Amino acid sequence: MTTLVVCTSRSSHQNTRRIADELGAALDARVVTPDEVTPAMLADADRIGVGSGIYWMSFDPRLVEWIRGLPDMSGRDAFIFSTSGLPETSLRRYTTSLEKLLRQKGFRYVGAFASRGLDTWGPFGMVGGVSRGRPDADDLAAARRFAAEVQRWQ
Ligand SMILES: Cc1cc2nc3c(=O)[nH]c(=O)nc-3n(C[C@H](O)[C@H](O)[C@H](O)COP(=O)(O)O)c2cc1C
Question: What dihedral do alpha carbons 64, 45, 112, 122 form, nearest 10°?
Answer without folding.
Answer: -40
